[in-house]
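From the shared-data thread, chain only:
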Amino acid sequence: MIYNIVDFGAVSGGKIKCTEAIAKAFEKCREDGGGTVYVPAGKYLTGPVYLESNTVLNLEAGSELIFSNDMEDYKVVTSRWEGVRRDCYESCINAYNKTNIAITGRGTINGNGKMWWDLFLAGKNEYPRPKLIAPYECEHVLIQGVFLTNAPSWTINTILCNNVTIDTVSIKNPSDSPNTDGIDPESCKNVHISNCHIDVGDDCIAVKSGTEDTADRVACENITITNCTMCHGHGGVVLGSEMSGDIRNVVISNCVFEGTERGIRLKSRRGRGGVIEDIRVTNIIMYKVHCPFIANLYYNCGPKGEEEYVWDKNPRPITKDTPAYRRLNFSHITCKEASASAGFFYGLAEMYVEDCSFDDVFVSMDSDGIPDFPAMAKDIPMSKQKGFFLSNVRGIEFSNFIIKNVDGPAFEIENAEDIIFTNCRIEDPVRECEPITKKNTKNIHYNE
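Structure, as tokens:
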């Protein structure tokens, strides 16, 4: 059955709130056992929307849901915000404990977020801002075809969901809009992200599993990301920094990153705990990123990030709150005109990043690039045209790895063991660079 929101009282034009009409359409759809709530061409102003089990929200081409910027329309609810369960403003589109839900069509969902961004930047929002779409503890979720724009905060944040498919979705938020991530699966299982275009003001895709303050630590696992294009944003695909419940079994393939500040970025710190493991990245093109590859366990942004135990470079006891990265594999990747650094792997003094490989990778540095931070960690300086920095690492293999136009050593290695270079080379038309500098290393092997 199809339930046209106009038949329940919705009025096009973007001036009259259609919240009640949309709610009535979903209620009738639920009472009848399921179906499609249909949004015809036109502009429809609304407050928060709640999906029901066995329902599809279908937006016709030429239709636009515009969300109200009247704060009184948004109740305070309990949800997760940046990995922690707390009170937040309800999201624009919500679903709690629902099964078999979908948002489809060629229409637009407009979060009308500028009011929320201004409140946040002025420090005047009492509770965390709404997300645009936020299913919570749902099964069988589909988001397909729609255009999403002007999210108040994160655009799509699936939380504690199973079997999620996000396909052929386009997301556009202003590059200066705060914390407007594109797609953030959080403590989810079996997530498929494909054929999406993402251009946002923060991370394009960020995989998360809660922080140390999350009571129930649930892994984010079995994630595939393929055939996507990502522009601007702080990171192309980011794992963490909320990783206390573990992140595992992630495949990233056939994607293009253009102008994202970082490429593939792993970030966490002491106190978070959790493991990021079994990550495979292949067939990627990056253009004008600051740093293509980051695995940083001294990330210091956010709550508690400035405390000494986070930035202390001396070994500390290994506990359940010690995070770990292992089995990260990168292959068939081209990075052109990177500005800050070719790569940045910085494990903890007591917990090395281990068992990683790079195969068939080309990185060219941009001599006209602007200096920037390769990663966010205390005492890490800005850089330009630097090579690959590795500290506190073990079992790293570089095969057919080419670095071009680097200023300084191609590889700067410290506190490392079992590093293998096979058929790697430096290309520089101007200067003769020192290939590798080493400090406190053992078992470094070079193969032609």
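The radius of gyration is 23 Å.
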